[in-house]
UniProtKB/TrEMBL annotation:
<dbReference type="Pfam" id="PF17849">
    <property type="entry name" value="OB_Dis3"/>
</dbReference>
<keyword id="KW-0694">RNA-binding</keyword>
<dbReference type="InterPro" id="IPR033770">
    <property type="entry name" value="RRP44_S1"/>
</dbReference>
<feature type="domain" description="PIN">
    <location>
        <begin position="52"/>
        <end position="165"/>
    </location>
</feature>
<dbReference type="GO" id="GO:0000176">
    <property type="term" value="C:nuclear exosome (RNase complex)"/>
</dbReference>
<dbReference type="InterPro" id="IPR041505">
    <property type="entry name" value="Dis3_CSD2"/>
</dbReference>
<keyword id="KW-0460">Magnesium</keyword>
<dbReference type="GO" id="GO:0006364">
    <property type="term" value="P:rRNA processing"/>
</dbReference>
<feature type="compositionally biased region" description="Polar residues">
    <location>
        <begin position="319"/>
        <end position="329"/>
    </location>
</feature>
<keyword id="KW-0378">Hydrolase</keyword>
<dbReference type="GO" id="GO:0016075">
    <property type="term" value="P:rRNA catabolic process"/>
</dbReference>
<dbReference type="GO" id="GO:0071031">
    <property type="term" value="P:nuclear mRNA surveillance of mRNA 3'-end processing"/>
</dbReference>
<dbReference type="InterPro" id="IPR002716">
    <property type="entry name" value="PIN_dom"/>
</dbReference>
<keyword id="KW-0271">Exosome</keyword>
<keyword id="KW-0698">rRNA processing</keyword>
<dbReference type="GO" id="GO:0003723">
    <property type="term" value="F:RNA binding"/>
</dbReference>
<dbReference type="Pfam" id="PF17216">
    <property type="entry name" value="Rrp44_CSD1"/>
</dbReference>
Amino acid sequence: MLQNRSYVKRTRGGKITKVVREHYLRHDIYCGTPVCKVCDTSQARLSASASTILILDTNVVLNQIDLIENSAIDDVVVLSIVLEEVKNRNLSVYNRLRALCSNSLRNFFVFSNEHHKDTYVTDMSGESKNDRNDRAIRVAAQWYQTHLAGSVRILLITNDRENKRKAIEEGISAETVESYVRSLSRPDLLDLLVHPASEDVIMEGVEDLRPSKRKIIYPEHKPLSEITTGIRCGIYHQGKLRVNRYNPFEAYVGSQSLSDEIIIYGRANMNRAFDGDIVAVQLLPRDEWNEEKSLAIADEEDEEEEGVHLVPGSADDAPSTTAQSQDSAGETCPVSSRPSGRVVGVIKRNWHSYCGSLEPMAKPAGSGGVAHALFVSKDRRIPKIRIQTRQLENLLDKRITVAVDSWDRLSRYPSGHYVRTIGQIGDKDTETEVVLIENDINTRPFSAQVLGCLPPLPWFVSSEDLENPVREDLRQLRVFSVDPPGCKDIDDALHCTALPNGNFEVGVHIADVTNFVHSGTPLDDEASKRGTSVYLVDRRIDMLPKPLTEDICSLRADVERLAFSVIWEMTSEAEIICTRYTKSVIKSSAALSYVEAQARMDDSRLTDPVTSDLRNMNTLAKIMRSRRIERGALTLASAEVKFQIDTETHDPLDIGMYQIREANQMVEEFMLAANVSVAEKILKHYPLCSLLRRHPTPTREMLEPLLRTAAAVGLNLDVSSSKALADSLDHAVGDDPYFNKLIRILATRCMTQAVYFCSGDLSPPEYLHYGLAAPLYTHFTSPIRRYADVIVHRLLAASLGIQKLPTVFQDGPQLNSIAENLNYRHRNAQMASRASVELHTLIFFKSRPTDTEARVVRLRSNGFFVFVPKFGIEGPVYLTPRGEKGSGEWFVDEQQQRIRKMDGSISYSVLQTVRIHLEIVEPQPNRPKLELKLL
């Protein structure tokens, strides 16, 4: 059946046009209920034993998704009109709802009410879109009641007062969320309820969580129309709020309109904005801007609202008390008289579930079994959240997750609701799960649909693979891999063969993941969402299922595997004569660890073919590395930590700095070369849709902290180009053997973040990878671990005519969305890795108080930050007694980068060596931290 829908719209030129769209209606859309006597029940998703089928309206889904995800809520019909409206209003909730609908363990059924001839509703004159949608939901509910002829109760769940009234008038059973949950006799589920503050929403039995004194605490947010006008006129500035992880009362908003960061001091000026919110900021009068000399390290215990604006703290670049693997992660330090401002409105919220614990209370407030409690996030940047709970006693010693519902201007704290219990506070598995949740790492098992895309095991290279004309048989080559010890997901291997003409044939062979991960399949969709594998200290969360990562695609020794190869002919001076790309079949001769490869190269007694190949490759790699540095590539450093883990308890036995060997650098050099070669190839064929990786040039302001530190120790760093900076760092040497590495670590901290992007979105000069001094770069060499590499493999295969380019590459907005997700997932994986290191650092030092040497790396008015070379740890050392901020006892000399007592008796300078004591303390309940004290 064909239904025409028409509407009018205004064109860009101002003309009014009528648009007519054809809308197809069907009568054979199934209801999804196995007890139905009319429909085909082979695809039924609802349970045969269901006594009640729920139909949810849009706002219930948007506001109550935490409740809906609970297994107690089941046998739900999700109307297509609700699904579409949720998608348009909140993509995160939409994805969670889709996951429920596709979960074979849950009874959720999507009913296409907009395409069923009996449930489709036509537009009515004068009816708003919202009213039409509500009417469509009621019509669908009524159809289900009639269709199932009373064999199952159909219940519409809505908190909308008017929608409920009309439903009951039309003979439809309807209840509020709270009413239905109470009928389940599950008091714990009531904790999951969200109570949106709206006159049109029915809230039953809701107690006011706000202070009894109705004093206005925060300014009212400006309406969006005023914000938009203000931004256009330059009165307001838009940007993302980043709260200082060392001081929750200090935040930064990066403003493109000012080309600078605006500092926000105090919760009053933050005006209910959360870390990650997109906000509108108004600058304060210039005489209220703070000088850097007023900056201090915030006290860990200082969490109260009073004193918020009295505790300006360190910059957001202040590193955590742990190792920081930077990978070009930028950090911006404050300079004198930087703009200060206040938040006047929130443009886009970044609220999500937060992990933490409830603050112990002497006498919990509340009545009728409902207690009011304050939730304290593990992330200090998040304010305390006020919740109601009926299970306080059971939750006080647990890590839990809480979601924010609202933040009224009359309330000191935001209001939220309990979501779920993670586990016992202090338990390592619980705290690891907290790390994963906080960084939005997907740890769910792969679904049956995803696993169904895998070839059966055991898998072998077939005769069809060997006879494939586009795949070259390279099994005769002496291929080997070099990886970290214990590596099972081996996605790269190498070969190096001396040629009769004195040149070398060098190959980089990468696991041919796209032979098994096909575009548009459930496996591909899942990998796209996960974006990257995540490496914690004691575990790995895979992007792809283990049969692929550790077996089918892993380039293990002595087994035939499919690869995508980049092969060069090189002179003995590592000059590339020619490059070719081919799908291949290889058989690795050896799977070596970095230590084993290094030992082979260093042992002059060994002359076997693999060792000779390693030495030849290392010789070429050194020349390539030298040439790359000569072009301006930076040799930076990061404080990477390596733990020795107990194989039974999985607790850390030892901790130390990660050692980089020549073998590591050799592999890195050829992986970089392969990535550059592939970038050139795909961009030549696909100039508008290639996925590349860029590293933006840092601004002078970003490098200012490095320059001041260098100047204070007599170094004059030239930062006019990457080449100039690289040369300056090479000359930054002294009597201290660790001095140069420390300067390089500080330089790394001033870099911007490297990001993925679509080539059609930027001009070629913007493609530059500053750190590598490469005009073009991409990721090709780790498709087992990174989805970016999967995309690049498809681009390279299409450029060679091996396969067609998937249609997604013709969709610019979707490509951008993929690139943004890859950047988000890559960053989160980094943060999760660092948080895992921090957790294991706490576990290691819990029973091991230690005295050691440290280096001063940054000064503040009440102390300084130090770096501990032996353990790769960084953190604050206080010089003034806690709680005596700005006592005036110490004076910071910015020019000389020195902090000294006012009487001149003691002073400390940047990069100076000091002795410190490391010990685990718990200044606040359930928030253990590693304390660094000056000896």
